[in-house]
Design goal:
- Keywords: Coiled coil, Lipoprotein, Membrane, Palmitate, Transmembrane, Transmembrane beta strand.
- It is elongated and about 145 Å long.
- It folds into two domains: 27-98 and 159-325 and 367-474, Up-down Bundle (Outer membrane efflux proteins (OEP)); 100-155 and 327-360, Outer membrane efflux proteins (OEP), CATH 2.20.200.10.
- The protein is α+β, with helices and mostly antiparallel strands and 480 residues long.
- It has helices spanning 2-24, 39-42, 54-57, 61-73, 75-96, 118-127, 160-226, 232-266, 294-297, 302-323, 367-435, 440-474; strands at 101-111, 142-155, 328-339, 351-360.
- A four-stranded antiparallel sheet has the order 1-2-3-4, with no helix packed on it.
- Helix 8 (232-266) packs parallel to helix 12.
- The mean pLDDT is 87.
- The protein is 64% helix and 10% strand.
Length: 480
């Protein structure tokens, strides 16, 4: 009767565990990701500058040399490589968890049993038996020696260990995409700093040329003052303008030093002069800039791929957390020599082995498992939101930089015409001043205006290169 009672209990527990298992083994429903508009799916040319190798995208050999140096020495890139190795070891650990653990063991211990216990009474009678020899008599306290192998193996019944391995592998791939992301950002940063240097060089050249013209103007106005055709106020105004230009030259030199040091940091070396190629006015932009189909081009972006892999990893974590409520099957085994006398430890009669298999499942206090599941759910949602944000950011960057390139091209054309008109105005104002039909203030204004316009034109040209580099990075360019 009692055996039937226990059988009923075990059968009921088995039914409950089975029903619970059927519910938990249902696949995790993935949350909905953001959907791209139809116009982003197939409405544009499939070609994209993001597929161009960076050595072909950049035409300046000095810039290519700098990028090569950065790829060899940059510290952020080396840090990313170490993260990959750390993730690789985690994959190895998860794979090893699916295999039996076998270890060699040499152990010894001692235990004294009480006289009025089951062991004490049983051993007392046994030691008086005439059927055992002296070697089999049990001492009190009793030593225990073991030399052999022990093994433990958790059988992956429900896929918990497999899901954990898949999550680790997805994160390993995500760290590789993280390295590619660092690579694209590094190449874009080096190229941006390089073109900023070229722009500063051009601005410095403009300031020096204007400074020479202003120096000549100061000498001319001094002569005219001596001849009675100008006053001291005019002389001081011209000198003030020259001093302002000289101050701007010093400021540009300092900016050049700062950009060079930032670039040297990216290259992983101490501050030193940066070799430059052709001036920025002679650098060539690609004749045809294509973004391709946005939805396909953004798939090249390492940050999008990294966010997608992180999302897959969190889903595997969530599935592993769900099946952790199910019973786990553990098999333990041992084989070796076991004896309570050291002299008899390696005798044939001391050979021993054992095998044990058991199912265990949490029944009462499952708060820790529920907390792990809740954390996996929130982490999965966080990864989804991060993936959606990365996609939206990618679309925004591509659209913004494409339109910006178009607008900068028009602005540059207008600014070049403005600079040419202002240069002509400076020449005319000088002639009129010498003929007595213009004041010195008109000359100063004309010189100041053309200087500001020339500097602004250089900044627009620099912005074109920076925007193109940003678009190239936004389309997933810069890594192979």
């Amino acid at each position: 009767m009692r055996i039937t009672y226990f059988k009923s209990i075990f059968l009921g527990l088995g039914v409950l565990l089975t029903l619970n298992g059927c519910k938990l083994l249902k696949p995790v429903e993935p949350p909905t990701a953001v959907q791209a508009p139809p116009s982003y799916l197939a409405s544009r040319d499939s070609a994209s500058i993001g597929t161009i190798r960076w050595r072909e995208f950049f035409a300046d050999p000095f810039l290519i040399s700098l990028v090569d140096t950065a790829l060899q020495n940059n510290l952020d890139l080396r840090i990313a490589l170490q993260r990959i190795e750390a993730a690789r070891t985690d994959v190895w650990l998860r794979r090893a968890a699916m295999l039996p653990v076998v270890g060699a063991e040499v152990s010894g211990g001692v235990r004294r049993y009480g006289d009025y216990t089951m062991d004490g009474v049983g051993n007392y009678d046994t030691n008086f038996s005439d059927r055992i020899d002296e070697n089999r008599r049990i001492p009190n306290p009793v030593p225990d020696y073991f030399v052999g192998l022990r093994s433990a193996w958790e059988v992956d019944l429900w896929g918990k260990l497999r899901n954990q391995r898949e999550a680790a592998y997805a994160r390993f791939l995500a760290t590789e995409k993280g390295r590619q992301l660092v690579l694209t950002q590094l190449i874009a940063e080096v190229a941006t700093r390089y073109y900023e240097l070229l722009a500063l060089d051009n601005e410095l050249d403009i300031l020096r040329k204007n400074g020479q013209l202003q120096q000549s103007a100061v000498e001319t106005i001094v002569i005219q003052k001596q001849g009675g055709r100008a006053n001291e106020l005019a002389v001081r105004q011209f000198r003030a303008q020259l001093l302002n230009t000289q101050g701007l030259e010093v400021q540009k030199n300092q900016e050049i030093i700062e950009i060079e040091n930032q670039l040297n940091l990216l290259l992983g070396r101490f501050p030193q002069s940066i070799r430059r190629g052709e001036p920025i006015r002679q650098q060539v932009l690609p004749a045809d800039v294509k973004a391709g189909i946005p939805s396909a081009s953004l798939r090249r972006r390492p940050d999008v791929q990294q966010a997608e892999l992180e999302l897959l990893a969190t889903r595997s974590d969530l599935q592993a957390a769900r099946v952790a409520f199910l019973p786990s099957l553990t098999i333990t085994a041992h084989s070796g020599f076991n004896a309570f006398k050291s002299a008899l430890l390696f005798s044939p009669g001391s050979a021993a082995y054992g095998l044990l298999a058991g199912l265990s499942a949490p029944l009462i206090n499952r708060r820790a498992l529920k907390a792990s599941q809740r954390r996996a759910e929130t982490t999965s949602l966080e990864a989804l939101y991060n993936y959606n944000k990365t996609l939206l950011t990618g679309y925004q960057e591509v659209v913004t930089n494409l339109r910006k390139l178009e607008n900068l091209e028009q602005i540059e054309a207008f600014k070049e015409q403005e600079v040419e008109e202002l240069r002509q105005a400076v020449a005319v104002s000088n002639d009129l001043f010498l003929a007595g039909y213009a004041t010195y203030l008109e000359i100063i204004t004309a010189q100041k205006t053309v200087l500001e316009a020339e500097l602004e034109l250089t900044r627009i040209q620099k912005e074109q290169f920076v925007t193109l580099i940003t678009l190239y990075r936004s389309l997933g360019g810069g890594w192979e």
